[in-house]
Amino acid sequence: MKLSINAAAMAALAGALLACSPQPDTGTDTIEAAEAERFTVMVGGTQIGALDIALSGDGYAIDYEYRNNGRGPTLTESIALDAEGLPLSWTIDGNTTFGNPVEERYALVDSEARWTDTTGSGEALPDGPAFYVPQNASPYWLAIAARALMNAQDNALPALPGGTLRLDEIDTLDVSNGSEARSITAYALSGTSLDPTYFLMSDRAFFGVISPRFSVLEAGFEAEDERLRALAAEYGAQRYEDIQSRFAHDYGAPVRIRNVRVFDPASQALGEPVSVVIEGDTISAIDPLDVPTGAGEVEIDGAGGSLIPGLFEMHGHMGEDDAILNIAAGVTSVRDMGNNNDVLSALIDRIESGEIAGPRVFRSGFIEGRSPFNSNNGILVESEDEAVAAVETYAASGEFFQIKIYNSMNPDWVPAMIAAAREHGLRVTGHVPAFSNADAMVAAGYDEMTHINQVMLGWVLDEGEDTRTLLRLTALKRLPGLDLQGEAVQSTLDAMVENGVAIDPTLAIHEALLLSRNGQLSPGSVDYVDHMPVSVQRSARSAWADISTPEDDAAYRGAFDQILATLRQMHERGIFMVPGTDLGGSFAYHRELELYQEIGMTPAEILAWASHGMAEYLGVGDTLGSIEPGKRADFFLVPGDPTADLRDIKTIAMVAADGTIYFPTEIYPEFGIRPFVDLPAVRTPR
């Protein structure tokens, strides 16, 4: 259910109509007539769509569409450029991945820039050249921006609605389609989003965009996909290695965090002020405040703040940006719920070697049935024998503690898969395969259900309806009419209780899907959005789904109320829950935890559950999950008291991850995030 594959290149959601005035004839000096007309969209080497480019007057006409996991955007663009390659007008129509209609408009009229996107309308009088960054566009916007930036001083331009676009050349390389060799240049575009976007140009002509999992490449060069995605991973790794080298503090001496109140998950309370001492990756002592700092110790002033055990994000799909931003958010462990296996292995190797910052990762073996709607993670199978073999492959590697079954799996194969998992000591979790329901998966032997919608859909779908499509999200509109005390609901909950089946609700992503609205700030981002770069701020004011009528609005809001009411029943009945976001963690994980207050959990209960509770659930409670001598040094410092106000976990002053010290205030500016707190005072040995 993860939102995006490559956030900067794919953009997010789009807006309402702004009529564009007729544009002057500027000639075609900036138009790349030799550029390819078709580009192939791929995930993990599988072709899933296309990008088509055509010259049109003073600019371009663009069609862009892909489908992965039964969903994807459909966009049509029309762009006019001036002689410097800057947009004069830009229209984008279509729909986003989750169905929100796109009607984005930009126009430059008499030196005044005007635009409309999903956040509403805006205007500006730029002092000089400026580049409008579309909220929702095809990857080709990167090529248009690149050529404009090549013409600009220092390869930088003010961006509209905000920020500064910067183009950096990072590599040159050769590619081939078997009959033609080409020299291309890799660039990074940054300045309006959390991360740079890596893309490729052949001189001034677009060649493609690359990320570790996703690529868009000139048609005919698809065979270069794997190599180029690996390069994207290397480019990202170099960036994160640089951040690690500057901001990971390994003092080579014991570290004393003085004057902190330690949160104890057992009592669910903060203790009296103490000092916590780290040696290497381990907590060596918790001392009274009257114990002086040793001559060879580093001292960090906790200033009376709260020291909280590291948190567990239980529904991640890890990437490099997720890795370090989770550390900065106090998330020191992540359960990965499905990924490109090779990409994730390489990322884990970099984290464990200390090259880059990141949480420890608990891996799930993703298994999906092949269909026109399949996801392209993990292992794809076409028979029961292949499905069982996939389980055995994951078991043989020794790197996976559970398997995850996905939407296109034939439900008839699930019992054999579960039997194989049991034989090898693997847990089983997953979606409900299409044309089945949660009751059948509980009976088959699932240990855990993934996503609360996957459970609830079985109560409102008609026989034969296909959840491999967006129906698994849009059918939630039916929930307001559901009787939560009825036999269908109660029998499912009874079965989950009887069989000890847990639930991974991913509550924050359901809030985003059901409660986000165009032009309104999403409730999950209220506390932090003003600290974020402009692209994140725009997305936080955009709907996900097509909510075009008052009836839709009421149905989606009512659906979220029903989800909360169902989870409240589950909590009261003792069905075990695990907190995870499917949104990358970090700030979204903080929101995930906050939402559980709506089902009757207290802040202290939530902190204990998200730390020691998850360590116990994953079988690592003897080394993680609490702040005690002999345990791993995984914890974070906040100035306030999150047992009184859980929102305080957003204001983190320091994180210890396996004994390495990080200060989020140093890290956040690297991502265009304005820090939340001042740096704590640090005294090193003389």
Question: What does this molecule look like?
Answer:
This protein has 686 residues and is α+β, with helices and mostly antiparallel strands. The chain has a domain at 7-245. Helices cover 26% and strands 29% of the residues. The protein is built from 17 helices and 32 strands. Strand 18 (274-279) and strand 19 (282-288) form a beta hairpin. Helix 6 (384-397) packs parallel to helix 7 and helix 12 runs antiparallel to helix 14 (550-572).
Biggest sheet overview? 15 strands, mixed
Shape: globular
Low-confidence stretches: 1-28
Number of strands: 32
Helix content: 25-40%
Mean pLDDT: 93
The separation of the N and C termini measures: 52 Å
Strand content: 25-35%
Number of separate helices: 17
From the alpha-carbon coordinates, what is the Rg to the nearest angstrom? 25 Å
Structural class: alpha+beta
* Strand order in the largest sheet: 8-7-6-5-4-3-2-1-15-14-13-12-11-10-9
Overview in brief:
With 686 residues, the chain is of the alpha+beta class.
Strand and helix layout:
Blueprint: H1 7-10, E1 38-43, E2 46-56, E3 59-66, E4 74-81, E5 87-95, E6 101-109, E7 112-117, E8 120-124, E9 131-132, H2 141-150, E10 156-160, E11 164-176, E12 181-190, E13 197-202, E14 205-210, E15 214-218, H3 225-247, E16 255-264, E17 269-270, E18 274-279, E19 282-288, E20 298-309, E21 311-316, H4 320-328, E22 331-336, H5 341-353, E23 360-369, E24 379-381, H6 384-397, E25 400-405, H7 414-423, E26 427-430, H8 438-444, E27 448-450, H9 452-456, H10 471-474, H11 487-499, E28 502-504, H12 507-515, H13 534-539, H14 550-572, H15 587-595, H16 603-617, E29 635-638, E30 654-657, E31 660-662, H17 664-667, E32 682-683
Parallel strand pairs: 9-10, 16-20, 21-22, 22-23, 23-24, 23-25, 25-26, 26-27, 27-28
Antiparallel strand pairs: 1-2, 1-15, 2-3, 3-4, 4-5, 5-6, 6-7, 7-8, 10-11, 11-12, 12-13, 13-14, 14-15, 16-17, 16-18, 18-19, 20-29, 20-32, 29-30, 30-31
